[in-house]
Amino acid sequence: MLGEGGSYIGLGHFLVLSAGLFAIGVYGLLSKRNAITLLMSVELMFNSTNIAFAAFARFGYNNVQPLAGQAFALFIITIAAAEVAVAIAILLLIYRLRDTIWVDEIDLMRW
User: Which positions ≥6 away from 95 have C-beta within 8 Å?
Assistant: First the structure.
């Protein structure tokens, strides 16, 4: 695939982008306390795997079917949308009960 100026953009470029986005998502997941930020970090990790699947499907390595990576990406998008809908519903309920969305202050399951 040719980029701007005739430079070649290969699978490695997409995988580096995907790994960088995944690392940012892991950092956000491990370092933040806000529940909305945690959900955004998980979504960033899902999107980074979508980039990797689409890149493998585009470049066709290891005799992968041409649409296999795109089908996996479609499933991940569907699962991510369902996960966000359920998580936001739970967060809204917790906010109504506790007036907070900080993860370390939510102790509803504690005795």
Answer: 101
